[in-house]
Amino acid sequence: IKLYPPGSKAIVTANRQMKEVIDEFLVKNELLSFFGIKQALIVNGQRIDVSAFKYFAESFLKFMSRLELKGITFKRGLTEEELQVLLEAFGRVKADMIDQQFWQRFSGEQRLVHIDLSQVRYTVIADSESEVQTDQAVAEEAAVTAAEISAQLEDAEQGLDASDLEDLPEVLRSLLNAARSIKLYPLKSKAITAAIGQLLQSLQRILERKPALTLARVSTALLVNGERVDISEFETLAQSFLKFLNSLALTSLTFLAKVSAEELQGFIGSLAELPAQDLDGAYWKRLGREQGFSSILFDQRLYEARVAATRLTPTETRTVKRTAKVVTEVQPTEAEPVETPDALAGKMPVRLSDLLLKGDDDHIKKIVNSLLQQFLQGPLQTRQKVVNRFHGMLEGLNIGLQNQLAKLITESLLIVFAKENDPISLRKLANLLHRLTTILLQFAEYPTASQIFLHLHRRHRELLEAKGEQANLLQKILLKPLEPKAQQLVLEDFRSKELSRRQDAAKLLGNLRGVALPLLLSIVKNEEDFRVRQMAAALLAEHGVLAAKLVKRELTLQATPDERIRMLEVIDTVTTDLKTELAYALVDDNDQVRQAALQLAERLDQDQVGKLLLEQTDNEKIHVAVAAIKLLGKLRPPAANEKLVSIMQSTKNEEVVVACCQTLGLTANSASIEPLAKLLASKGFLRRQRRSADVRATAALALAQINHPRVAEVLANYANDKDPRVRQIANSFELASTTPPKRNLAVAK
């Protein structure tokens, strides 16, 4: 596959030959499975003696290990296309492409119905157990410290970035160098001091980004903060480190962010005089206690390799399960005769899937109520186990069953969430509830999802009021956006013509609080339906100043003309403090944007807008000035008349003069009579004294709108004017002295 292109004769022939071999076996068997367990090859559940083909068997197991696969199963009905897709993937997939759910996603996307790929998952199965403390105060302090450390380790296990992987080899190299040097030089020598300094620097580069660094071994794999890393580029170095850990009888070695040179010196110094016997975890715990180590932890994190079946829905894989036993490989276990709570938890996915498919909700509720009672009556350790079991319930269920289960466990989870104060359990519960909302929204279960968000925010508010330390922790979870697929579903329902769907989506967006702001802003910017935009704006208004700032910034800095128009049509629902934004919109290059701005100005506070419009009457852009002048006629601010008369007398632009006349006619202020009369009379011989016929006609029409005796005197002089429009206006005014003419100030053509 790596030597020839897909579809080449060599590849086609090889695929066909492999298919024929598999088919021969599947004629008599439903399945053909290959598993690698403890370096042994297991075929259809039986260990195979590979002495006759040891080299090929070892190569095959290494090949599967490189691909993070524990097993491959072929089913009767296997097609040539499925086999071809699989083999091509084996040829092109590299180790750095494989995450914890890679092969599950691959199988689903490629629809490999007749192939099951069992992927290795590395899971935390234990935190280091604390020794029993006889003094209560000491015990409580130790419990708090253990909880803090556990929280730091979980935070560190949120994924490695490129910088971490780049700095990792130097950490391993420095650690091994210091370990070798202590066998050759005294602890206080310059060589050891330099080696420890180099180790500290290499650790700090990673610990600046992560709260902890855990280096662990599971079989032949190197795990860093719970994640298996590709060691192909530094394999010799990595293998040396794994041997080093094994020689110390350690499974994991953890450095916290506050690790000091003194602690590193104590640890490296201990390597010079290791005991010949009794070198185990207890020895290192005792050493750490005697040396006062607070930032170097031994076997604090224990991991196991588990098999992830291809049909499972992707779930969290770093679930903490407290147990005293370290399991490093997947092994068959006998069924327990009595179903203890731990045994029940282990069988939960199978049991629940059966019950859900049967629709046996009553039985499921009994299981949930049993867990709830354990939580309400138990100590911290029991409560943590219950929380972990609630997490485990979703594992192994498809999305449909997950939704069915989510509706059944939400009420109990909310009770648990309302009563829990342990920071680790509280965070797990909040994350689980947040995850349930995504599942529920995919099936339009809005009431239950809204209820979850309502309770999350309520608990956050309670913690804030009580100044609880968990408030910040919960806030981070509440600020997590909805998954993109859930966002799209909510937006579609909010835009729906069905009233019930729209109402449900609106309720949810209201309960999302700050997380809803980007979604609501998107609707206001992009939705054509005015009613939908108006509803989104109303929801934004509930967020007060924060939403107002967000919308105003978007309007002035990032929106396209079409988006600005849509936003201007509803923005006054969010805020009426829009003087700056309106000023920008009124001078926009787009005519439709300016029109939307003028319509907005009509809806806003007249005092605020009037001052702004008076300023815009002097704008260099004639169309902006004219629009502002015309709008003044509708708003009629106190200073408008004086300003318009001044402009009319000083400007040479006839379009502006006509606009001033029209607006003065609308305001009908007697102070405008003489300025308008002068315009009407401006028909002298000098060019600068003459006004166009349109200006004179508009001035005459404006005068006719003012109910004052002086107007009759002025217009009487133009009863026989050469301009038929002026003559008509003058004569109409005389004939209709008791009936005011209609206020149509458009220039007669």
Descriptors:
six-stranded antiparallel β-sheet, alpha+beta, five-stranded antiparallel β-sheet, Leucine-rich Repeat Variant, 749 residues, 34 helices
What does this structure look like?
With 749 residues, the chain is of the alpha+beta class. The chain is elongated. Among the domains are: 112 residues, no CATH class; 164 residues, no CATH class; 111 residues, Leucine-rich Repeat Variant, CATH 1.25.10. Helices cover 60% and strands 8% of the residues. Helix 12 runs parallel beside helix 14 and helix 20 packs antiparallel against helix 21. About 7% of the residues have low confidence. The strands form 2 sheets. The chain has a 6-stranded antiparallel β-sheet. Strands 8-7-6-9-10 form a 5-stranded antiparallel β-sheet, with helices on both faces.
